Structures are given as C-alpha cells and as structure tokens.
Amino acid sequence: MKVLEIHGSTGDSTILVGGSLRDLGTYISAEEVVIITDINVRRSYLKDFPPYEVIEIGAGEEIKNLDTVQAIYGRLVELEAGRSSFIVGIGGGIACDITGFVASTYLRGVRFGFVSSTLLSQVDASVGGKNSVNFRGYKNIVGVFNQPEFVICDMNLLRTLPEREIACGFAEVVKHAAIGDRDLFSYLEQHYEKALELDLEVIERLVYDSLVIKSSIVNRDEREKGERRKLNFGHTFGHAIEKTTGIPHGEAVSAGMVVASALSAKRGYLSVEGTKRIEGLLKKLKLPTRLRLNGGEVVDALRKDKKRAGDSIHFVLLHDIGSAVIEEISIEELEAVVHDLC
Ligand SMILES: NC(=O)c1ccc[n+]([C@@H]2O[C@H](COP(=O)([O-])OP(=O)(O)OC[C@H]3O[C@@H](n4cnc5c(N)ncnc54)[C@H](O)[C@@H]3O)[C@@H](O)[C@H]2O)c1
Ligand SMILES: [Zn+2]
Fold first, then answer.
1. What residue's CA is closest to ligand 1, atom 2?
2. Is 128 in the pocket of ligand 1 (CB under 6 A)?
3. Kind of pairing, strands 86-91 and 33-38?
4. Boundary of a domain, candidates 160, 189, 207
5. What are the pLDDT digits (tens) for 195-208?
6. Which residue, among 145, 125, 128, 142, has the nearest Cα to 67 in the 3D structure?
7. What is the DSSP letter of 222?
8. Do 262 and 184 belong to one domain?
9. Which H or E run contains 54?
C-alpha cells in the first residue's frame, strides 16, 4: 500500500492506494459510524462491510440530486446520528460525491471518509475535496469544498466493474499523464495490456501516479483559481460531447482530448507525433477517439459551458506530452474547430 497526503484548507486527507475495504474499521476512530453506499456496491460487497448502519442509495447520475440528499438526512435523523458520528461513502464518484455533500452539511458538518470502488473515482472523483450534486439538469452545480479524512482505494473492488466503466477511468489516467507526467504516459504505452487485465501492480502504479499529479495540483490551487484548471484537459469538448451524445463521461473526455491535442498542434505547441501518441494510447485502452457529432449541438453546449468567462473559455492545451498550459480561447475559435470536425 502507498500513502499520499492532501493538505486542503478544510483539513488534511490521507489517500491509501492499495488499502482494503476489509480494514475500514481500523481507519475510523468514532463510536457511531454510518455507511452510505449504492445498491450495486452493497449487493456485491456487503459481506466485507464492518457492522455499521448502512444507508443505501440507487445508482446512476439521475439520483445524484437533492431528493437523495434529503432522503439521507431523513435516515440520519431516524438513526439519531449526532455531531460525533462518522459517515463513510463506499462506492464510485456518485456515492462519494453525495456522501461528501451530506456529511459536510448535516449538523453543519460531521467527519467523513470514502472507500472508492471505481477506477474513475480512485484516480479522480474521490480525491480533491469537491462534493457536489446535480440540480435541474446542471451537473455538480450545488456543492462544497471539503476534504474527506481518508480515501481507501481498494483495487480488488475493480474486478466486478463493467469493462466500459474501467475504460472511463483510464481516460482520466491518460489525462493526468498528458498534463503532468510523461513517464507515466510511456509506462501506460508499454503496459496497457496488463492495465486492461487489471494487473494489481500496474493498476496500483497508475492510480498512485495519477493521484500524485492530481493532489500536487490540488495542494497548490484547491479552489480552481488557476493551475487546477489543467485537470480539465479534454473536458471542454468532453462535456459538450457528453451532453450532446449521452455517452459516458470518460469516453467523451477521450474524444475531447483528441480535439484538444489537435488544437495544441494547430497552435504550434504539440508535435504531430505527440497527437498520434495520444490518440494511439486512447485506442489501445479501448476508448473512442473520433465520433460523429452534431456540430450545431456541440457549439450550443460549448456556449453553455459553466466554466466560460465572457466570450472565451480557459482552455487547456499541451506543450508536450506531460506539460500543459492554460490559454483563453474565444468561443469563435472553438466553433471553428467544431466546424472543421463535423
Ligand atoms: N468530486 C470530483 O472531483 C469528481 C471528479 C470526477 C467525477 N466526479 C463525479 O463522479 C461521478 C462518476 O463516478 P463513477 O464513474 O465512479 O460513477 P458511479 O459512481 O455511478 O459508478 C459507476 C457504476 O458502477 C457501479 N459500481 C461502483 N463500484 C462498483 C464495483 N466495485 N463493482 C461493480 N459495480 C460498481 C455503480 O453502482 C454504478 O452503476 C459523476 O457524477 C461525476 O460528476 C466527481
Ligand atoms: Zn473527468
């Protein structure tokens, strides 16, 4: 097991890469503990949960909302959970985001931690202190910054995860490598087959190295005033593609990274060889790179991007594999890229 520390303004967070769900009890020093988990994770792993109260939620992006949050508050009141209670979210990004939001607001905040059970949440969602829910169709628009006390990334849980969910996690690993670690990028190029087989040693390195990049950026810019924006590489187009096609986030980000790489090359930063390596690696990891898109819809979605500032967007470009820059790009220029694509 490898350990990483995040120093957030709301407290410190310990990330246990290669830790085990079965050891959960040893990380919690509280008398009253409540688990929040989703229906699928409960079904597969209840046998490994310590004997705490369990609140079950449904699965899927549709339940990541204030109705679910209210239902959980109701159960916490029934269970007479108090200020000294500890809440653990066990699951993917959805269970962890909801848990972080509930724990940060119930009684003005109680202690909480996560056991992260999807590759995407291990390499991304459960780390960094953002805890949000969706509201009226807007993703993650209501939320808080607050660090969990711990995050256990248990690689053994990934074996029951559908292949498509695994691929989505790899997209975020490629993102982290592309913006901050050329060695990780080369490692993935060499070991992608073992990664797809979920070889424990390879996955542990991919998760750990990804988190080193994410946590060092978050440590420097927790509130996304500057450098944290680099973590949005591939996401401006990715979100627009996700919205217009309905494909999973990681797949949309994969295609979004191909577009952002092409734009980086067009601006004279990234070499053509670099763009080919990025697209090649995504393909090896069974991710889509080029999609049939409706240009008008994509442009419309770009215009509604919540990270847009006036007529431009802070856009993440690559200088090289392992090195990113943030530049303001006008909506018109992005529209021109969409027209080239479609
Ligand atoms: N807080 C952040 O910084 C941050 C960052 C990125 C993404 N997110 C959020 O994360 C969410 C996506 O996370 P996700 O991809 O983990 O989705 P998810 O939580 O929906 O999990 C994906 C599916 O896998 C199931 N599942 C979970 N663990 C499993 C396991 N071990 N075996 C079998 N099935 C399992 C779930 O029930 C679900 O059906 C989005 O809502 C996104 O907004 C948050
Ligand atoms: Zn993402």
1. 125
2. yes
3. parallel
4. 160
5. 999 999 999 999 99
6. 142
7. T
8. yes
9. strand 53-57
Q: What is the pLDDT of residues 1-52, one digit of tens each?
A: 999 988 878 788 999 999 999 999 999 988 899 999 999 999 999 999 999 9
Same-domain status, 148 and 171? no
Where in the sequence is the domain holding 109, given as residue range(s)? 2-160
Cα 269 from Cα 324, distance rounded (Å): 10
Instruction: Say how many Å lie between the CA of residue 32 and the centre of ligand 2.
Output: 34
pLDDT tens for each residue of 221-258: 877 788 999 999 999 999 999 999 999 999 999 999 99
Please check whether residues 184 and 323 belong to one and the same domain: yes
- Beta partners for 327? 315
Helix (H, G, I), strand (E, B) or coil at 335: helix
As beta bridge partners, residue 7 has: 12
Evaluate: CB of 41 within 6 angstroms of ligand 1. yes
Tell me how crowded residue 62 is: count the other CB atoms within 10 A of its CB: 11
- Please name the residue that has the structure tokens 């967007």: 313
